[in-house]
DNA sequence: AGCGTTGCAGCAAGCGCTTTCTATACAGGG
DNA sequence: CCCTGTATAGAAAGCGCTTGCTGCAACGCT
């Protein structure tokens, strides 16, 4: 029924071995023979059997990209950058690898499941993106998985994610702490003294690092933090909206709201507006990530730009072995403070 | 080095066949034997070799999801819904299938390449999402591919995409035309007579259908369309921003701007605001899709809600054979007009 | 002329699993 | 007590491909 290598070989009047070598192009084949084979491939509309090939060669052309939330552009941008590098240098339309993204939905179990599935497929490489869940048991389980993957020859790269201890995984991280600190220092510099903070999910590394940066800035300027000023939530708009209402309820005198990311900040803006406050006249707002929509939010968002696409591209190249890993296997990219319309001098 | 089925069999003191049967659970195995095998699997930390299994069984557990733009929540939401259905009913954390999303970036070549790659892997199912490129040659090529995939036993489902002619693919489409018409009729009902339209890429089905709906509404109300009122662009914010400036240049007297989707509409809002116009007092704006951010844009966006998650979930179930395909293989979902703050009565 | 090279193609042995067919063991009915 | 039926396990034949090794011309060197 389906066309096999042998069919092609018969049609081209060569041995299956020769067809295989033409297709893989890693062994000398005479030009005339090659052409004959290629013609047969074309005429029969032959498509390689991936599993068979993977089995025989003990490698596959699958590259997995794990993301926490596929509906969030933060991950979309990184995934997109990774994929284009994996699919072929210079943006060749496709290339030979199957770059696929897997959506964990932020669930540790799903993360592990996908890792196993990828291990099962003998993936050529795996890129994990975004913050990790800080549960020790989970971290250990992930590290163990990554070790086994690496042992099996799968290249493992972490992108926008902290290094995995006891692992050979290359880590390209973001300086969330530094960015958070710089951002809050900017607000303090403007004169803010009562700053609310809307954090992400409590057990995420990203959440913790950004919050630590925020608090470091407060400490540097001798501002004692009121516990009521921090609310945890999710990394989405609705969460920002609700958390802001909660913050205002707890302390209506806040003059600034720092959000865990841009989506949250947008939600915060909506809540502030609905409560009759003007931005930044009454309350300043700051985000994180500098996603594309942030610049033309209203007002445009003061935030920290993260080199998402650059990091993704680099992770993709490293995963394909086309770029040297950074010394020590770890590289940290700094964020860049983007001061825009949503932050200003407090009026009271 | 790596653990194989035979190793597990040896450890459990059974034959490889028995281990395979325990793992696949489709053949009677005595409870005691099963347990022994499972223990051995656990102790050896055995992971099935996917390619070998796929080769022997002539099927794989890979399910591919093709999207035009992974950074766009429109696709993210559908992909996410598809993935959860594929990964297991009731949201089981993982399940047995590897649901992966492939980013075509809207490029026809990449679309074809991914289809071939998926065919190579003998994917269990493939779901194509979003508008198709209306190039006849490309459509024919895609149809041919889909036919071969179906022949090889791969289930093919189109989600938010028009039916593929001469194909057995199940199509779950959106009524873009009807939605577009309803939206524009709403604006006309408010009194608008000079409406700009920012379309998506010219060769996409989605673009054409939405625009046709818009024009149908104009025709119904006897409004003669000025060719200057339509600008084509991409489905992103920046495009909306630029297109709006262009529209205003061409005809500063427009009282409404209808955008191809919500992102474009957000960009339009930014451009209008920068040109000193108030929304909706001076100019009304309307989007399409009702993505999550639309409700708390400022002002909140009048748009057409598409059942993205529902359609995705259904597509996922059909792809897994857990739901009957619609009669005739085609189902069309209507959009729902969401009237919000960005549309109002024109003031002049 | 003899012989080592070089260039290209084929043989055949797997890769690790699934599955058909066969074998064995035991239970119960005649 | 033999025969049939039922339940469970094993043997072995591939699945379609890759690749180390062998084979064999043609070539150029001494």
TrEMBL record, chains A, B:
Gene Ontology molecular functions: DNA-binding transcription factor activity; transcription cis-regulatory region binding
PROSITE patterns: HTH_LACI_1, HTH_LACI_2
Keywords: DNA-binding, Transcription, Transcription regulation
Residue ranges of every copy of the HTH lacI-type domain listed in the record: 3-57
SMART domains found in the cross-reference section: HTH_LACI
InterPro entries: HTH_LacI, LacI/GalR-like_sensor, Lambda_DNA-bd_dom_sf, Peripla_BP_I
Pfam family, one: Peripla_BP_3
PANTHER family, A to Z: LACI-RELATED TRANSCRIPTIONAL REPRESSOR, LACTOSE OPERON REPRESSOR
Protein name: LacI family transcriptional regulator
């Amino acid at each position: 029924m389906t066309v096999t290598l042998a069919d092609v070989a018969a049609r081209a009047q060569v041995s299956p071995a020769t067809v295989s070598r033409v297709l893989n192009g890693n062994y000398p084949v005479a030009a005339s023979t090659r052409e004959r084979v290629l013609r047969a491939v074309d005429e029969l509309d032959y498509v390689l059997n991936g599993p068979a090939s993977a089995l025989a060669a003990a490698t596959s052309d699958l590259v997995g990209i794990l993301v926490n939330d596929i509906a969030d552009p933060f991950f979309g941008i990184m995934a997109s950058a990774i994929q284009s590098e994996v699919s072929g240098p210079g943006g060749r339309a496709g290339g030979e690898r199957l770059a696929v993204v897997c959506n964990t939905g932020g669930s540790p179990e799903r993360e592990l499941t996908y890792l196993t599935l990828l291990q099962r497929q003998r993936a050529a490489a795996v890129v994990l993106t975004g913050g990790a869940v800080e549960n020790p048991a989970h971290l250990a389980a992930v590290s163990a998985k990554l070790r086994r993957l690496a042992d099996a020859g799968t290249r493992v790269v972490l992108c926008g994610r902290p290094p995995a201890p006891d692992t050979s995984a290359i880590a390209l991280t973001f300086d969330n702490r530094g960015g958070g600190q710089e951002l809050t220092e900017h607000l303090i510099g403007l004169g803010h003294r009562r700053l609310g903070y809307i954090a992400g999910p409590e057990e995420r590394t990203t959440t913790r690092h950004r919050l630590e940066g925020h608090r470091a800035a407060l400490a540097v300027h001798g501002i004692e933090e009121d516990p009521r000023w921090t609310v945890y939530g999710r990394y989405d708009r609705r969460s920002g909206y609700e958390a802001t209402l909660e913050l205002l309820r707890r302390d209506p005198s806040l003059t600034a709201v720092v959000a865990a990311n841009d989506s949250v900040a947008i939600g915060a803006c909506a809540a502030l507006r609905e409560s009759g406050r003007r931005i930044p006249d009454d309350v300043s707002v700051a985000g994180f990530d500098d996603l594309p929509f942030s610049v033309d939010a209203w007002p445009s968002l003061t935030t920290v730009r993260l080199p998402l696409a650059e990091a993704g591209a680099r992770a993709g190249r490293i995963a394909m072995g086309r770029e040297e890993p950074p010394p020590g296997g770890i590289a940290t990219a700094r964020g860049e403070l983007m001061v825009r319309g949503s932050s200003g001098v407090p009026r009271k």
